[in-house]
Every structure is written in C-alpha cells, then in structure tokens.
Amino acid sequence: MRNPLHRLYQAKLVLLAVVFTVVGLALMVLAAWSAGEPGWQWLGRLPAMELGSTLFTTGLVVVAFTYVDGQDREARDTERLERVITAKAPAIRDAVIDGFAFKREDLARVATPERLDEIVTNSLALRLGDAAFAQDIYTDIREQAIRATERWYDARISIWLSPEADPPAGRSPLFVTTVAWEYTVVPTTQVRRFACVDDRADYRELAQDPTTSVWYVNPVHGIKPGSREAFELVQFAVEGTELPIRRSERSDGQTYSVNIGQEVVAEAKPVTIAYTYRTVVPVRGHLLHLDLEQPTKGVDIELDYSDCGIDYVNVVDFIASSERTRVSQSPKTVPGQRVSVGFDGWVFPRSGVAFVWVLSK
Fold it and tell me: Higher confidence at residue 183 or residue 252?
C-alpha cells in the first residue's frame, strides 16, 4: 500500500499534467477562433497554436506515463532503497550500537524497562556463553537493586567488645557489644527503625524491610528481647545533629524509630548519618555477625576486643565479589587488640562479615 507522501506526489504530478492539458487545449482553441475574428489577427502572429499543442501533448504524455510507469517506478524505488540499506547496513548497525552503548539518554528514549532487561540479558549471555546462567545472574542482581530503597556510600563501622561488669550468677557470660555506624546516603524514607526480637520467623520477616535494622536475641541466654540490656539505640544523628529517638516495648521485643525529617528527604541530597547501638553476644558463642541492609559502596569495619580474654579473631566475609577484602590484625606487641576489614566495591544486602574468636582460656 502506498504511503501518504507517495500519494501526494502522484496527485501533484497528475494535477500538473491536467493544468498543462487544459491550458494547451485553451490556447489551441483560442488560436483557431482568433483566425476568423476581426481585430484578433494579431494573435496569429504569436505561436499560440504551437505552444498550446506542446502543452496539450505534454500533459497527455505525463498522464499516460504516470499510469503506465507507476508500478515499475515503485519497483525501481524499492530496489534502489534496498541497495542503499544493504550498502549502509554495517554503518547503521554500528551507529545504533554505539549510541546505545555510550549514550544512556538515547537508549532511555527508545527502550522500555522490559526491552532493557532483554538487552542486558542477551548481552550478558553472549559474553558468558550461557543464556540460562546470564538470566539467573541478572535477575538476582536486578531484584536486589530494585528492592533496595537507598544506596549507602563509605560506610564506617566501629565495634567494641567488653565483658559484663556484674554478670548474674548461673547465666552464660556475655560480651557487651557497642556498634557505631556512619555512612553517606541520599535518604528516601523519612522514618528509620531498629528492632530486637527473639523469634527467628519475626527476624526473617523484618529483615525483608529495607527501612528496618533488626537484631536477634536467642532466648536461651536468659535475655529478654524487650529489655535495654538486649538492645538499645543510644544515639542517632544526621549531619552531626542528634535526633530524638522513640522506643516502644512489648513482651517479645522492642522497636526504636527516628524521624529524620521530611525536608531532608525532599532535598534529595547526600547526608551523613551516624548512629550507635548497644547489644550483647554470648562469650562462648564465639561469633559476631554483621549484615549490611542496603547496597553499599565501600565498607570499613573495625572490631576492638581489648581486655576481653580473646586470643585471636578470625574474619569470615560473606561478600561475593572478584575483589578481595582487606583484613588486618593489630600486633600483639602494641596496646589494644583490633581487627579491621575493608572493601572498596559494592556490597549487596544480606552480605556481611562474621568475626569468630578464640578465647585465651
């Protein structure tokens, strides 16, 4: 089916042919009529008949040629277009690929989210040589990234272990654990929550909430999850300004909440958030595990276990990356015992670090 532009061209050509034919016929009639009319003999001195005949013939020829040559001309135009496209196909292909590869705006204008997923998956499949593997990898990373509400940068985590001052008789000894976080983020949620529970099902459910940090307390150690001894958020600050902390307690746990302010979220600018909480871990559990809740670029963690009766601390990182983490131990010849872990790449949610200690006796 001919497109509107082609039909417009045909209409113009036919109209021009009709004009030529009508004007030519009018000139021939006028020349023949003027030959026998007194006062119009001067028209015979002009080539009106020849000009009219030429225009009339041209109009008829154009109409006939348009009718006869229409289909052949379409075939020639199509063949010419195919030759041009075939000759320029490599250049067009390279230009499109380069535009999509290096200009994110061009790709965003022409591709839907579903199409983008297909492009990424197919590209990864070609790179890895395994379509199923590429699909699974991309789907997992995409879901983690989409589920995350924020992205943290330059997270610094300091942990101090200290023995209980007056442990109750008959209870397994505990380490008082103080954890201080500091990171840069563009906040997307106004309220930040911290929870402490003694039920693993509740823990797993709350762990899926990206706005809530959850801590699990094993009830066998005799610590009530709703007590400040089990968990306490002691400080929360945004850009160095401390904010009020609200606490709610129940029989099976407790929740802390902090309102960082609607204006901070509305500005959509990076801010530094710092908070400190205190909890307990069993001494004979020999383990402290720390998770990251949001995708985080750059992590530095330091554990201070001075005067805790710990001989050595092993570090087990659960960070899936081709880059290696940096682990360093403080020499035993210097005061204080510390171990630090550093990683410069991206750490995804539910990744983290475990510290496993060996007691001196």
Answer: 183
